[in-house]
Structures are given as C-alpha cells and as structure tokens.
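Hi team,

As requested, here is the filled-out complex form for the iron/sulfur cluster run. I kept the field names the same as last time so the parser does not choke. Let me know if anything looks off before we queue the next batch.

— J.
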Amino acid sequence: MRFYEYESKALFARHGLPTGAGSLAQTAEQARAAAAQIGGPVVVKSQVLSGGRMKAGAVQFADTPEAAARQFEAVWPIRVNGEQPRAVLVEAKSAVAHEFFASVTWDGRRKLPVLLFSDMGGIDIEEVAAQHPAHLSRTHFSTLLPLTERSAKEAVAAVGISGGDLNRLTPIVLRLAQLFLDCDLTLAEINPLAKLADGSFLALDGHVEMEAEARGAQQALLAELGIGEDETRQARPPTDFEREGARLNAADHRGVAGNVVEFDGDLGLVIGAGGGSLTLFDAVRRHGGRPANYCEIGGNPSVRKTRNLTRLILGKPGVGKIAVMMNVVSNTRVDIVARGVILGCLDAGRDPAEAIAIFRIPGSWEEEGFRILEKYGVEFCDRSVSMFEAAGRAVAKLGGAGA
Amino acid sequence: MPGTFIEVKVDAATAANPDLARQLRESCPVDIFAQREDGQLRIVEENLDECVLCDLCKKIGPKGAVQVIKLYE
Ligand code: SF4
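And here is what came back:
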C-alpha cells in the first residue's frame, strides 16, 4: 500500500531523516496561511498516490503567500492520472546544491532488501542504471540484522562520495534501511535527497510503500498517520466484482479464496498456493491467454468459499471458462477444492465438464479429488504436468495460442 | 436430503438419544450435526458437502450407527 508524500515525510521525520517545514492545505486560504508561516518562497505540491505530478503541472512554486494561494487554485483541480488530490503540501523552497537518490526496496531474486544509492538524484533511477551504472550502488542486507554503518558508508562511497558528504549521508541511508525493516515496507525512497547550499541534507520528496499483509502488525503506525482501515491505497478503487470477492472471502474464516483482482479477459482463474497465483497468471499470459481475474486460494478454504468464488468468476460477463490450478498443495485439500468448483459451476448453471478448462491441483487428497472430477467429466492432471503446461492447455481450450 | 457429494445417515435410536446427539454435534469439525430443542439430532443439510471425511462421527454410538457416504464413488 502506498503512502502520500506527506505521510512518507512524517514517517521519515519519526526515524530521524531530515525533512523540511511544511503543512497541508485543502483551501487557498490554508495555502496562503501555510506560506505566510514559512515566511519565504514555497513549493505547492499536489498530494496524489500516482506519479507524474511535475509533468501534469501539479507542482508549482510561489514567492509570496498570495502567490501560494493562486498556485493552490491552479494545482487543486488537476487530476493526475485521473486521481483527485487529497490535499496540497506547502513546503519551504530549498536552495539545492546537488541532488542524490536513496532507496531501499526488496530484491525478489536475491530474497533480500537492497539499498540503492546514487549521486544522480531527481531523475528516473532506471535511466541512471542503464546510462550511468557507475553512479548507482546496490547493497543487499539481511532482514534479521540491521545494515551496518560500514556497509552504508561503502554504499555511499561506491559512487565517489567522500569527506563531509560521506559522513552526513551515511546515517541517512542507515536510518532509511532501518525504517524499511521496522515498518514492513516494500519501498522507502528519497528522491531527490538534496544537498543544500549550507551543506546539510533534506528529503525533498518521499515515496513509501508498505507490505499490504503488514496492515495488522502496523495498525498503531497507520492510525498515527491517520490512514483508515478502509483505505485500500491501490492504484484504482476496487470494482464491484472485487468488492464482492472480498465480501465472500471475509464471510468465512476458513482458508483464503479471495484477493480477487478484475481483468478484462475471458479465462476465469481459480488459482493459488505458495506463489502459484502469480506464476499461473503469468503462464496464462505467456501462452497468449487473457485472464478475467487474478485471485488466491490457499490455507484449505471451505467448500462454500471456493464455491462462492467460482460462481462469482463464472458470473462475470465475458468469462468463457475457468482454469483451476495450483502449485502442489499440502495444507489445502484437492477434494475440497474440487467439490467447491463443481458446486460453483452448477450454481452458475454450467456443466463442470464444459466450464472447467483444466483442473491441475496435485497434492493432499488428490486421489479423492480426482475421483470427484472423473465423475463430473472434468479434465484434470497431476504433478507430472507443469503449471506452465496446464496453463497452456486451458488457453488452448478457449481458442488461444496455448499448448 | 443428501448433499451433492456426501450423505450422512444416523440410525433412529442414536438420533433420538440426546447424549449421543450432543457428542455428534461436538465432534464434527464442520457443523454437520446440530440438536433440536428436545435434544434430538438434526442434520444440517447445507453443511453436508463440507464433510472432511474425518470419521470422528463414526466412533460415536453403536458400530454402524453413523454412516458417511461418498456419493461420487
Ligand atoms: S466424517 Fe467428520 S466431517 Fe464428516 S460428518 Fe463425520 S465428523 Fe463431520
């Protein structure tokens, strides 16, 4: 889940990272008062979750409180990628001598957090990585042990920084790494991290994202930041289909058959197990298939839960068939899922043999499950068929490229 | 009424015995057994297909008093 810039900065300030003076405004008068309190040139920034504010004209500068009020009027109506601003942040304009980049994110391949540091801030870091690789350092560290001061120093020094700047930047990246671990973040980024004319450093912009599953553990922090339990912070508001999926999942505590995301394809997916959902979704796309949804099943959902999810997916306009696929399951029972999807098909008025393109869930109680599927004439396969191959068969049945 | 996949049969004497009915209600992990106000057994039809085939109910009452039948075999 994403944080607004003002929330990111509040988090930075709590962890001893340098942020500037500023306050939020939702009216031109509030913007004027905020600028008057700062008492000098200000920057007026729209608070939206999506990127591209600068390009959209949603970041403006003002030298006087009256100009700040005018800039508020200019910025407030701008929808950045269709998103209405939550507020406008009025901050002191800083005299910037140089811009750096500091970020901590998760490296899925190494399965470790990674600190990225560059002396070329303010621009796309992908561009720096591609065009100026010597200006970007990557330092992996453990989730169990904090990043050491020595490693932090090496990360900063690796792009050619020394002397006083090295000494000032080292604690900043150390704190950013600790913030990442303490708050269960998936991204903690300062870009630009500005060196001011007086030699001090300041986070001019912040981008923070938290692992959605950590909401429970981080409840106190979210409450302090004023983030309500109903705020999903997704890139778009949930659709009716997604809302119904969440409702059905929440209605029964047994297992998971939810995390439904709507797409506009024709192949419904009942998928899951230990990262299997993402793998299977990608496999369907790789075969040229068009998923109608993403979802996750696991933790041995009840028959009713799988049934409701199946009925929901089959009821979605444009869905021709469903593919029921998981990784090898140990704590989810194949027979229970088989019963659920068959009942869901029957509820939707569909013949399971025709509606289920493929059932590929190997694992516990598979023989029992396969007996059920056999009785209803559903095509199934065991672990000798890979997830990729099963996805291909499903796509082929809908007339796509497939296997 | 049986479920789509599972049917549960309980003999009349066991179903009429409030103590055995209570044991059945307490043993089933997916609430297939309930008790009426007079203590007699009631089978919760909408839960039948949730049966996890644990056989706990079969250990209650005289041998063969409770049968769990798979309708897909
Ligand atoms: S076998 Fe287990 S789940 Fe099924 S009815 Fe008996 S006690 Fe309930």
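Two things worth flagging: Chain B has one domain: 6-70. The longest strand of chain B covers residues 6-10.

Thanks,
J.
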